[in-house]
Specification:
By secondary structure, the protein is mainly alpha-helical. It has one domain. 71% of the residues lie in helices and 0% in strands. Helix 1 runs antiparallel to helix 2, helix 2 runs antiparallel to helix 3 and helix 3 packs antiparallel against helix 4. The chain is flat. The model has no long low-confidence stretch (mean pLDDT 90).
């Protein structure tokens, strides 16, 4: 079984925890200079990665093949490079620009790959209208 959904969800949780920790630290210190990095980490790390993971959970057939792996290995390293790049920009470090730029390009490339995957997974076959799909969400018994 392909576990890309699990990997995206785990990265999302980690990004959310780090992003919230950044927010709390900024609030305690009353220094909001890293707010852009914090916002990007929460939005692209927590939210986007969680949505990717949930998409792959709802459409498990979309996890097959090479494209989902390319998506993962573009999106996650891009996040890891971009957020520190943004933080460095706000700290006045010249190294931040190229890191944020490389990370942004990787993030966009990953989203393009995801778009192809999502369109394939959700498109109707042979020109027919897509039939509504009923998916069961299993909830463990208490």
């Amino acid at each position: 079984m392909n576990r890309i959904s699990d990997y995206f969800l785990r990265i999302a949780i980690l990004a959310g925890l780090v992003g919230m920790g950044m927010g709390l630290t900024m609030a305690i210190r009353q220094d909001f200079s890293l707010a852009p990095a914090h916002a990007h980490l929460n939005l692209l790390g927590w939210v986007s990665m969680a949505l990717y993971g949930l998409f792959y959970r709802v459409f498990p057939e979309a996890t097959q093949g090479l494209l989902p792996k390319i998506h993962f290995f573009l999106a996650v390293p891009a996040l890891v490079v971009m957020v520190p790049g943004i933080a460095l920009i706000n700290s006045g470090n010249d190294l931040g620009e190229p890191l944020a730029g490389i990370g942004s390009i990787g993030m966009i490339a990953g989203f393009i790959v995801f778009g192809i995957i999502a369109l394939r997974a959700t498109s109707a076959q042979k020109g027919e209208a897509a039939a509504p799909v009923q998916r069961r969400i299993s909830v463990p018994a208490p």
